[in-house]
Structures are given as C-alpha cells and as structure tokens.
C-alpha cells in the first residue's frame, strides 16, 4: 500500500484540481481519494502537483542513431522512405548500435515523466524485435506500430500486403505508415482493414506539409485527410495543414490527431492548428516525433506547443488543454483510462508546484528535475 499525501491532485478526465490524498494498493490500483485517509508507505506531496504520467503519442526512437544529422536538408531528403538520410543511417548501423541508441532514448523518456510511448518501427519483424530488446529491462510501456519495407515495393500486390500485415501484427500493436501517398491506395486500405478487424492500431502520417495536400488534390481530387479517413484510418499523425473541407470531415469523423509541433518547427513546415481542433472537440495527443531532431521530452513539447500555437493563431489555447493532450488524450488511443480516480490503475507523477496555476506550472515552468516521484501502476 502507498499514499500520496498533501498534494494538489489533477483528478478525472478533466484533470480537475483537488487537495486530497491518493491511496494505492499493491496492484497499483487507486482505492481511495480522501484528505482524511492514508495507509502504507507515505509519499509527501506537500507543495506538489499530482498528475497522470505522460504518454509520448508519436515517436521514431530508432532515429536516435542519427541525432542532429542533416540539419538544413528538406523533409524529403531527411526522412522519406526508402532512401532518406535517416534510412541510410539506419541501414549503415549495426543491430547493437540501434538497440543501444533506442535504450538511451527510452531512458530519457522515463527520466522526463513518460510512462508510455507509441513508436513507428521500421524494418519489419526485425525492427520490432530490436525495439523489444532495447526496452526489455526498462519499466516503460511501448505501443509498437510495425511497418514492412515491402509495402513500398511496386511489385507487392494488395493481397500480399494483407498477408504481410497479418503476420506483422502478431508481433506488435498495429501498423504505422509513413504517408498517404507513399504506398498504393489499395495496399493502404488492406492494412487498415486487417488492423481494424483484429483490434489493432492503424496510424498514418497525414498532411504534414502543404505540398503533400496540394499533390494529393491534383492527383485524386481529395485531400490526404479525406483519403486517410476513407481508407479506414482513425489515428492521424501531424495534420499540420488541413485544407478545403478537412476540418468538417475531422469534426464529423472524430479521429485522433497526434500532433508534433516541435518536429514541424524543426523541419520548417509550419505550426499545426491545434486550437482549431480543440474548438471542434477533436481529440489531440502530443508526440515528440523523430529523436533525430528532438529530445523525447514531453515538458519541452508542451511548452513549445503552448507558445507556438498562441503565437501563430489568434484563437487561444490553454495549458489545461495541452496537459490533457500529453496525458489523458494519448491514452485514449490505446483504449486506456489512466485518470486519477478511484478504481483506476494509473501511472502518476508528483511534480513540484512552481506557480499558482497548476497547469501552467507543469506546461510552462517544469522540467524533469522537478519530478519528485514517479509511480508506475499501468502495465500494457
């Protein structure tokens, strides 16, 4: 048993601030929220905020093998499969080098309060196994979305892609595709059908920069957003540039959008209209994207998001919104409720409170050094 005592606890789906104790049993389940009850080991949270831990909802931690290379190159030159610079670096690296670099990236995430990450893992079955080896001794949860290089082979038929997908998802949590226009539309459709039928995640990069949207409309008279939704994808990464009827489609389809503002900034592709999504009540989660460009630190991601979105759009977004994107919303993608309420199993951070507003304290002023306790209750 354990009690987190005297903290300001961000409770429920809305992260409502309540001065209460949090009592957790030996299985990691919250059994009591009460100012007047305590049991077992005491964690003194006086002067601290108690919040759900972070989920990094989009990463490529394999890219940690190539930190800060290629600065100034275009996004296509850097990451486009199969010959972008990142893919060249991955092909040149040994398995052990990749494992070690991913291990260090996962440790960085743990240090900065991330209990769970959703990773796009290139390299087929081998790539999936490398990530599993990299984190096997770390108390972090990984949702692994695999990908086969054969998806990009023009000789691969839709039926072959379907069989490849069935095999891959026996070893991972779903499929993460690099882009709507990177694979044959029928192959993209088959991947989503298999994943959805097997209760696996199908996720794809969508509308990361304007030129992709322009190309898509010229080729198909449909935006990338429209094509992804029609193909059965409900988890869309980036959506930096919604155009035409995209906002209406997103609002009516209720997908999850995984936004990566620091990555968009580093690659000079713009600032995602997160405040517009929030106004439309579209669920947005945050990810740090490629470790090649960004430290996988959700504190940095939250602060950048707050200031970049406020600086780029007239409609205001709140620190409260952004903290939900880094916690509650991301776990919804996995079908998990990790909110701090009785009966739940939650991953919990105790963070020093540095200002009167608890949300701004975390989003605008906190860093990993301000974490005084990290309780991992949730296991995938």
Description of the molecule:
The protein has 380 residues and is α/β, with parallel strands linked by helices. Helix content is 37%, strand content 23%. The chain folds into two domains: 89 residues, Urease, subunit C, domain 1 (Roll), CATH 2.30.40; 280 residues, Metal-dependent hydrolases (TIM Barrel, Alpha-Beta Barrel), CATH 3.20.20.140. It has a nine-stranded parallel beta sheet. β11, α9 and β12 form a beta-alpha-beta unit. It starts with a strand and ends in a 5-residue tail after the last strand.
CATH class of the largest domain: Alpha Beta
Distance between the termini: 21 Å
Low-confidence stretches: none
Provide a count of the helices: 15
Question: Main beta sheet, described?
Answer: 9 strands, parallel
Keywords:
TIM Barrel; 23% strand; 2 domains; 380 residues; Urease, subunit C, domain 1; nine-stranded parallel beta sheet; seven-stranded mixed beta sheet; alpha/beta; 37% helix
Topology:
Layout: E1 2-11, E2 16-24, E3 30-34, E4 41-44, E5 48-52, E6 54-60, H1 75-79, H2 85-92, H3 95-111, E7 114-121, H4 124-135, E8 141-146, H5 158-168, E9 174-177, H6 185-197, E10 201-206, H7 210-220, H8 224-230, E11 235-238, H9 246-253, E12 256-259, H10 261-266, H11 274-279, E13 284-286, E14 289-290, H12 298-312, H13 319-326, H14 328-333, E15 348-352, H15 358-365, E16 371-375
Parallel strand pairs: 1-4, 1-5, 6-7, 6-14, 7-8, 8-9, 9-10, 10-11, 11-12, 12-13
Antiparallel strand pairs: 1-2, 2-3, 5-15, 15-16
């Amino acid at each position: 048993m354990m009690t987190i005592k005297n903290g300001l606890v961000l409770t429920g789906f809305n992260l409502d601030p309540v001065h209460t104790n949090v009592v957790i049993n030996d299985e990691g389940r919250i059994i009591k929220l009460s100012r007047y009850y305590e049991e077992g080991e005491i964690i003194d949270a006086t002067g601290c905020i108690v919040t759900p831990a972070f989920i990094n909802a989009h990463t490529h931690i394999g890219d940690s093998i190539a930190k800060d290379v290629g600065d100034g190159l275009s996004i296509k030159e850097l990451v486009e499969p199969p010959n972008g610079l990142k893919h060249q670096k991955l092909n040149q690296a040994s398995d052990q080098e990749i494992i070690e670099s991913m291990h260090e990236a996962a440790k960085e995430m743990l240090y900065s309060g991330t209990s769970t990450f959703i990773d796009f893992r290139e390299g087929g079955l081998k790539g999936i196994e490398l990530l599993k080896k990299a984190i096997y001794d770390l108390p972090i949860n990984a949702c692994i979305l695999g990908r086969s290089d054969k998806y990009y082979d023009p000789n691969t038929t839709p039926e072959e892609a379907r069989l490849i997908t069935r095999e891959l998802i026996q070893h991972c949590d779903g499929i993460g595709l690099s882009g709507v226009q990177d694979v044959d539309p029928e192959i993209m459709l088959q991947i989503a059908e298999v994943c959805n039928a097997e209760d696996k995640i199908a996720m794809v990069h969508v509308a990361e920069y304007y030129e992709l949207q322009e190309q898509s409309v010229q080729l198909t008279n449909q935006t990338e957003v429209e094509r992804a939704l029609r193909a059965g994808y409900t988890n869309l990464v980036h959506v930096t540039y919604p155009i035409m009827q995209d906002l209406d489609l997103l609002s009516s389809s209720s997908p999850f959008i995984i936004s990566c503002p620091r990555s968009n900034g580093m690659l000079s592709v713009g600032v995602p209209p997160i405040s517009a999504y929030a106004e439309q009540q579209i669920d947005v989660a945050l990810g740090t994207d490629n470790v090649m460009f960004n430290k996988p630190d959700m504190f940095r991601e939250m602060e950048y998001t707050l200031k970049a979105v406020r600086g780029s759009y007239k409609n205001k977004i709140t620190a409260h919104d952004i903290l939900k994107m880094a916690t509650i919303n991301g776990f919804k993608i996995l079908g998990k409720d990790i909110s701090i309420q009785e009966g739940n199993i939650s991953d919990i951070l105790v963070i020093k409170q540095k200002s009167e507003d608890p949300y701004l304290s975390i989003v605008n002023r906190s860093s990993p050094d301000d974490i005084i306790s990290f309780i991992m209750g949730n296991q995938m």
